[in-house]
Design brief:
Blueprint lengths: L7 H4 L3 H9 L7
């Protein structure tokens, strides 16, 4: 499944996706 960050309001990520994104090492999370 392709995730279009430009239309995240339309994609409506599930709670699991939100947790995966939140847990992903981004680098600016200080």
């Amino acid at each position: 499944m392709a995730i279009d960050l430009r239309s995240d309001t339309v994609t409506r990520p599930s709670q699991a996706m939100r947790e995966a994104i939140a847990a992903a090492p981004v680098g600016d999370d200080v």
